[in-house]
Design goal:
183 residues; alpha+beta; 2 domains; 2 helices
Length: 183
Amino acid sequence: MYTSITAGYSALAYDSMSFDARNRSATMSARLLSLLFLLTMTLMASYAGGAETGLSVRDGWIREAPPTVSGLAGYLVIENDSAEPRELIAAESAAFESIEMHRSTFEDGIARMSPQSSIPIPADGRVALEPGGYHLMMLAPVEQLRAGDQVRVLLTFDGGERLPAMLRIRRAAGDEMQHHHHQ
């Protein structure tokens, strides 16, 4: 009889341990699933930030240049559908060592290019980064870029939103303003 009580207790203890192990495993799986969901949502929010902020990007392109040129000019249109003005504060791409924001101006018949710490985007408006004005100065391309290639650029805005943009490499039209050096 002692043996059957001990065997019954052992079976009960085994079932209890098995239940605890299954319960812990289920709890760990639920926590892991929750963590993965949270991580996924955070990443989606950081890369698709434009949807809830009213920011969007279109018509991105980079002027093709000879292989010896160390800086290319990038252009695009940023639209701001929100009631608040915004600012582009940074840009980055794996295709370039660095990207700076610049503005070309004409003063007394002389073209000048100056670095900008940010580019303003008006509320319910847009800013065009285009030849002769604001542009992205894309420095030290990692490899030769040819007409038809595409480059992914990640734009960062005030408030921390990050918005990806695809810029296509294209030949410069003969009548477009040539990109000027700093003076």
